[in-house]
Amino acid sequence: MKRILIVNVNWRGDVLFSTPFLRAIRENFPEAFIATLVVPRCVPILENNPDLNEIIVFDERGKQRGLWGKMKLIRLLRTKNFDLAFILHRSLTRTLICWLAGIPERVGYYTKKRSLFLTKNIFAQAEPVHKVDYFLKIAQDYGVPVKNRDYQFLISQDNRDYADKLLQEQGVKKGDFLVVLNPGGNWDLKRWPKENFALLGDSLVEKYQARVLITGAAKDIKLAEEIAALMKNQPLLLCGKTTLGELAALMAKVNLVVANDSGPMHIALSQGAKVIALFGPTAPKITGPYGRGNYTVIQKDVGCAVPCYELNCTDQRCMKAISVQEVLQAIAKMRQDENK
């Protein structure tokens, strides 16, 4: 039986983008033992994935930090007797780990520093493509056909039960028009102004009698409270009250999600939620919504190069250029299309 290791990437959204790759490998090697190497924060994205036999955690900032920790990981991988490694991460360190672990076949994107440690170098597309296609090119160039490009995040019944209980505890009734606002993001420049989220929330309550839910991680509690303080109609504050799986279950039950470019935005799409995605410095064609789904991307051209990684930007004009009225119009159109 073939034993395959897939060395995954580090961000939750990108790991979600890797799931069509996992599916393609499983479909091509139905009897294989397939494992993935992934950092701790991304484990929940994959823990119920049916295409995997095992998840190996690479705690590179914790117990596997430093040379000794990596040597322990290498020894662990040696005991697994993998035949083949697909290295989705462009890291030289991860490539060396696979080489030192004695995995005979190592496939990944070419870089000058690690090309000698790969047995098959994949060359990137000439123009930037969506991360889903970026990962799938590794499979295709290896000779694996791709049938389905939709990403997936499978959740447990416990996750669904928790989401039901959470909504019930918050006084949500059957038939309520539920709207999630997810104002966070892994860096501040990707965030729509909190004043805009507050005004949008109030407008949704007044126009649609919506129940507004603000979601996010525990680190977003302060942001959510600041938005709530700006609103006339108090939202339900759910930051820090859900795991990723529970958040996904919650997204599956709501009528609409408005979110910045973030992992939760993609999690919402993976559950079939209707999504308004707000983009500023990042490129939707690379990290935007992908595949089947009911979504609208809003991004304004403010004369800056996109993607933009000017972390010292002081005006955030790309996000400020998106008006509350534009978002409301996109929501109205989505609801109108739904009723056709």
Characterization of this structure:
The chain has 340 residues and is α/β, with parallel strands linked by helices. The protein has two domains: 3-142, Rossmann fold; 159-338, Glycogen Phosphorylase B (Rossmann fold), CATH 3.40.50.2000. The protein is built from 14 helices and twelve strands. It has helices spanning 12-17, 19-28, 43-46, 66-80, 92-100, 131-142, 157-169, 194-208, 221-230, 244-251, 263-270, 284-287, 317-320, 324-338; strands spanning 3-7, 33-38, 54-57, 84-87, 105-109, 120-122, 178-182, 211-214, 236-237, 256-260, 275-279, 295-299. The strands form two sheets. It has a six-stranded parallel β-sheet, with helices on both faces. The chain has a six-stranded parallel β-sheet with strand order 9-8-7-10-11-12, sandwiched between helices. Helix 9 links the parallel strand 8 and strand 9 (236-237). Helix 2 runs parallel beside helix 6, helix 7 packs across helix 10 and helix 8 (194-208) packs parallel to helix 14. The protein is globular. The N and C termini lie far apart (51 Å). 41% of the residues are buried. The mean pLDDT is 93.
